Amino acid sequence: MQKDDAIKKLGNGEIKLYEIDKLFSSTDATNIRREHIKRIKGISLENISKYSLNMEKASQKNIENSIGTVQIPLGVTGPLKISGKHANGEFHIPIATSEGALVASVNRGCSVISKSGGVNTVIIADKMTRAPVIQTNSIQESLKLKNWIENNFSRLKEVAESTTSHGKLIKIDPILIAGNYVYPRFNYSAGDSMGMNMVTIATEKVLELLEKETDADVVSLSANVCVDKKPAYMNIIEGRGKSLMADVLIPKEIVKDKLKTTAKSIEHVNTVKNLIGSAISGSMGFNAHYANIIGGLFLATGQDIAHVVEGSLGITTAENRDGDLYFSVNIPDLPIATVGGGTSLETARESLEILGVYGSGKVEKFGEIVIATVLAGELSLMAALSAGHLAKAHKTHGRTNSQ
């Protein structure tokens, strides 16, 4: 079939968008679908058609019904001095965003931190979860199933780990019960991949054994107790992905000269905004804008952007120490990867290479860079708010009146 014939058949409904991949290479299929959309919508799509990604590879792993790519401006911040177990040294951080002022704000935070001796970073936990729902006949049977899972953990661990050379089943906890429904939360270590595919396959294998040896029925492999791509206190308390913390002590002179405010003012704004303000609004994120920094880093490095909703959960603390500012951020739930998924896309790989974290054995280092960058962005915004400079910064860098 010729390309023009395929476009005509798409137009009259003889073939469907996904069927083009069976007839042409991924690159040609992309062009054909885009031409079809152009004709039926009467638009040019000139910029969507310009890209350097290998669409043959991307169509195998990352996208269906491709028509091209989108482009997002990419900036760089730093150097940011980090003192962590895995990330140690000075780093330049790529951030992809269309929000004016964001990169400039993070860059100011990087400068202040580096002048203060650097940011300390730690990883306190590392796990990926999958939580199915299993149906029994009664509350007595639900409790019996809970006990069966707990008593057979070693067997279930062996079955789960038979499906992967990297993942390890750490625990099955908590095991929640709602009447005749049981929700066990499987916790795995995932290595350098984000791990969702791995833990899904491993858990499915475990459930096959469970159904074989008990009277319970698996209703769904995922039952929202995971909790994947949704804000939840479960993930704040239990953690998911990488659980990270970072802190820094900013001398009073630097607070005054570089942040144009005081430690006492930042402490006060943090209390009334991030803590009290978040509490009275029912927010699950006791912070100013973690999602801004995490979103920019995720877009740049090929992470699953939906996990920004989890990464935005966390608490910022600020403390006046005789004029010096102690400042910390904590992220209990950050699913990230340095291999697999979108990290293999050419632009994502280059951004990861800027950070020095592309490939196996680098995910802990990447996590510490992310939490350090979040602290830089959070510090800069809180200083701007306490000094009354937020609107001015957006007028300067956001260019709200430009066309």
General description of the model:
With 403 residues, the chain is an alpha+beta fold. It has three domains: 3-61, no CATH class; 74-125 and 240-398, Alpha-Beta Complex (3-hydroxy-3-methylglutaryl-coenzyme A Reductase, Chain A, domain 2), CATH 3.90.770; 132-220, Alpha-Beta Plaits (2-Layer Sandwich), CATH 3.30.70. It contains 16 helices and ten strands. β9 and β10 form a beta hairpin. α1 packs across α3, α11 (263-281) crosses α15 and α12 runs antiparallel to α15. The longest helix has 25 residues, at 363-387. The chain starts with a helix and ends in a 5-residue tail after the last helix. The mean pLDDT is 94.
Termini gap? 44 Å
Q: What class would the helix/strand composition place it in?
A: alpha+beta
In CATH's first tier, which class of the largest domain applies?
A: Alpha Beta
- Taken as a percent bin, the fraction of beta residues is 15-25%
Shape: globular
The helical percent reads 40-55%
CATH superfamily of the largest domain: 3-hydroxy-3-methylglutaryl-coenzyme A Reductase, Chain A, domain 2
- DSSP helix count? 16
Runs with pLDDT <50, length 5+? none
Query: What is the quaternary state of this protein?
Result: single chain
The total domain count is 3
Arithmetic mean pLDDT: 94
N-to-C SSE series?
HHHHEEHEEHHEEHEHEHHHHEEHHH
